[in-house]
Amino acid sequence: MKKWLMMLLLAVLPALALAGAETPEMIVKNVSRDVLEAIKKNDKDVIKLREQVSQKVEPLADYTRMTALAVGRYWKSATPEQQQQLTGEFRQMLVRTYLSALTIYKNAQVNVIGARPGESVDEQSVRTEVSIPGQKVIPLEFYFERLNGSWKVYDIAVDGISFTVNNRNQFGSAIRQKGIDGLIKQLSDLNAQANVSGKAANK
């Protein structure tokens, strides 16, 4: 998966929670333009952006399901405490990736192609295309599930490659080498380094 596009797609995610009563297609259509416009206008104060994103991301996605998909078969062997820690670090990783995208890809366009049903009435996916000047147009698909009346993202596919599956390969390798606690520490260290870098950039 192209790293630049993974960062960009996560730049779109935080605003998807703004319209929980709408259909997934309406949500993507209504917020993509606003989020990309926000990227153009707010790329200086990293700390402020992190605070704004943190306020929005909590209702955005089913982070437990996303983390479970990313961890794969090792998820069931993790203790409830480890699952909670993994979910927290995974959420921070998404925020960190989002913040990385804010200052890089300001000229992107997201065109919504349409929605299609999932495996049940409570699942849908929304197909889009992302274009950046000088780059090939890349298909991007958001996978939604309806929980307690609200639509939440649980996976994203970039050019047919699942974000959770892409991370699963890396996470599985880390777990095999260092165990589940090792993966938690690895994610925690990366998130901590990003926090330090963000503070340094604001000085």
Automatic annotation (TrEMBL):
Q: Which residues form a coiled coil?
A: none
Keyword match DNA repair: no
| InterPro entries linked | MlaC/ttg2D (IPR008869), Tgt2/MlaC_sf (IPR042245)
Q: Name one Pfam family in it.
A: MlaC
Arranged from A to Z, the UniProt key words for this protein are: Signal
Record's signal peptide = 1-19
The protein's superkingdom reads Bacteria
| Name listed for the protein in its UniProt record | Phospholipid transport system substrate-binding protein
Q: What is the lineage of its organism?
A: Bacteria, Pseudomonadati, Pseudomonadota, Betaproteobacteria, Neisseriales
